[in-house]
Amino acid sequence: MTDDTESLIARLTDGLQPVKRLPPPTMRAAIWLGIVALLGALFVMRFANLAMFVHRIGDPRLALELTGTLLTGILAVIAAFELSLPDRPITWSLLPAPSLVLWLGCSGFSCWRQWIVRGPAGLGKGETADCFLWIVGFGVPLAVALFVVLRRSHPLSPGPVAAMAGLGVASLAAFLLQFFHPFDVTLIDLGLHIAAVATVVILARTAAPRALTPSNF
Amino acid sequence: MTASSAEGWGGLMAAAQAGDGGAYARLLREILPYVRAIVRRHHAAPDRVEDVVQDVLLTLHRIRHTYDPARPFTAWLGAITHRRSVDALRRKVRTDASETFSPVAYETYADPSANRDIAAHEDSAVLAEAISALPPGQRQAVELLRLKEMSLAEASAASGQSVGALKVSLHRAIRALQRTLGGKVDS
Question: What is the ipTM of this complex?
Fold first, then answer.
């Protein structure tokens, strides 16, 4: 052992203070998701037309699509918490993949059905083009709130953590959007949703080195 | 590393999390060969290996709250060591791509005007003025690593900056001094 290393060990161990161990990542994810679910529920009950939503959710295809969207959000957030720890393999990033396929598959089927039923008009944008702003507008503050919690893990590889966090919050925002989206998804709508999710993921990844790494690290 | 020592490391780490400095010191000394073996897969120069090993110890210290005693300690330590070692390798590749190592730069030049320039830069007042004009982080890196000749680990502990941040600050400081003094400063 070199003198430098020995003196470093002496410095690190001298007057060592106890540290509070991080709770398991699934528990941290559950607490964060629980708080977001509570705030989301309050928002929906205050502003959404629930009667219309209950009517639309009777369509099994839409129910499947919403299940895929919500599961993608939950699983991506769990993956972000897992990946924030040093000994978790990168394969955790595959956790939300099946639900993401379900979500995009059902949305794609909806586009195809719109095209069959309405012809070329079914390819255009739906009744509103605000989906992009909605997902980004809700996704970014949620990402900030998630980053604040993830920073406690001091992720050594912030990139994949941020990508999962971005996918998670954007998916949760897209799920919330469905309560205010009283029509089936067209091809343009689907493109806007994907672009919005990709935007949040890219923003999160770009901010990751500074946002997820404490300044003295 | 034996299986029993690896199992014992988890217990020592749990004790360290509870504030047991003796257990922590024993753990850090026992893991050194294991850490060095991983670092040597990426780095050959002994001084660089030791720099990275010290960086691993500092990282382990900062994120010791993330260790879960219910999980294998060697997997946790191995992941940290591998990550920091690869990060150091990437920094080296980036630095090497933008810098040229020239041992003869320490020599004076046959051209008299070049020697006059070097003599001028050796004037401590000029150099001190150039260093004082640096941003605080860069000035601190130069003072600790070059003027006080501290190791990276010592400078990191003294300044609160990470080893990586210190290296970047020093690199930028040298570049700034080169610009200020006409490109005659050697790192």
Answer: 0.80
d(CA A54, CA B176): 65
Measure in Å the smallest separation between the Cα of B3 and chain A Cα atoms: 19
Q: Rounded to an integer, what distance in angstroms lies between the CA atom of residue A26 and that of residue A73? A: 14
Q: Which candidate in A8, A157, A210 is best for mutational testing of the B interface (most B CBs within 10 A)? A: A8
Question: Which residues of B are less than 8 Å from A12 in CB distance?
Answer: 24, 28, 57-58, 61
Task: Give the pLDDT band (50/70/90) at residue A131.
Answer: confident
pLDDT in tens, A20-38: 999 999 999 999 999 999 9
Residue A192 near residue A131 (C-beta atoms within 8 A): yes
User: How far apart (Å, rounded) are the C-alpha atoms in residues A31 and A27?
Assistant: 6
DSSP type of residue A216:
T
Burial of A152 (0-12, 13-18, 19+ CB in 10 A): middle
- For residues B187 and A204, the model is more confident at A204
Closest by alpha carbon to B85, among B32, B41, B46, B29?
B41
* Contacts with B15 (C-beta within 8 Å, 6 or more apart), sequence order: B23, B24
pLDDT at B181: 79
Q: How confident is the model at residue A97 (pLDDT cuts 50, 70, 90)?
A: very high
Helix axis angle for B73-98 and B3-17, nearest 10°, is 80
CA distance A86 to chain B (A): 6
Q: Is the pTM of this model over 0.80?
A: no
Separation CA B27–CA B135 (nearest Å): 38
CA B65 to CA B170: how far, in whole Å?
A: 30
Phi first, then psi, for residue B133 (nearest 5°) are: -85, -5
Mutate to test the interface with A, among B50, B65, B140, B169 (most CBs of A within 10 A): B65
For position B61, what pLDDT does the model report?
A: 95
Chain B residues with CB under 8 Å of A8 CB are 54, 57-58, 153-154, 157
* Percent of residues, chain B, with pLDDT higher than 90: 40
Chain A interface disruption, residue of B9, B63, B148, most A CBs within 10 A: B63
Provide mean pLDDT across the span A63-68.
92
Q: Which two tokens stand for residue A32?
A: 């964060």
